[in-house]
Design brief:
9 helices, mainly alpha, 3 strands, about 55% helix, 50s Ribosomal Protein L17, Chain: A, 3-stranded antiparallel β-sheet, about 190 residues
Length: about 190
């Protein structure tokens, strides 16, 4: 059994806190984003992530575990059929909390908690695979350095000839600058 959180609870007692968080989770899965206080958003994040992890499993037991928190069968269906496949390749971090400033009435700090449904960037996946590969290949770095170097397709002479044909500045401007000044130009 998890240890209860320290300090004051949301609402009055533990049952009221569970009810608040269950309603926030239901609204989050229904609308994909909820505006609430920072404290409620921070308390909702672990619950929502756990429910999405159950939905990714997709079996009957996981569905029944989610139904103990989210009472709306339509929202549970959306969670299992739309949200879980959208975050299937993610290994966590299904929600994002963005602070938005204070509420007008009581100056409570507000935040938006939303689902991260964007697909995982292929660049990030490639970078992770590359770092894993370099970590594994670090002891075998010496044989890679002994590999022969391939020659380029264009010889050096051809590239030098191309550089001579296309100077950076026009020839007329450089000739005028290099010419010595006459006495008539100075006066």
């Amino acid at each position: 059994m998890p240890t209860p959180t320290k300090g004051p609870r949301l609402g009055g007692g533990p049952a009221h806190e569970r009810l608040i968080l269950a309603n926030l989770a239901t609204q989050l899965f229904e609308h994909q984003r909820v505006t609430t206080t920072e404290a409620k958003a921070k308390r909702l994040r672990p619950l929502a992530e756990r429910l999405i992890t159950f939905a990714k499993r997709g079996d009957l037991h996981a569905r029944r575990r989610v139904m103990t928190v989210v009472k709306d069968k339509g929202v549970v269906h959306v969670l299992f059929t739309e949200i879980a496949p959208a975050v299937a390749e993610r290994q966590g971090g299904y929600t994002r909390i963005t602070k938005i400033g204070a509420r007008k009435g009581d100056n409570a700090p507000m935040a938006v908690i939303e689902l991260v449904l964007e697909p995982l960037s292929p660049k990030q996946a490639v970078v992770k695979e590359a770092t894993r590969a370099t970590a594994k290949a670090a002891p075998a770095a010496a044989p890679v350095a002994a590999a022969p170097v391939e020659e380029s397709e264009t010889p050096v002479e051809e590239s030098a000839a191309v550089a001579e044909e296309t100077p950076n500045e026009p020839a007329a401007d450089t000739a005028a600058d290099d010419a010595p000044e006459s006495d008539a130009d100075k006066a």
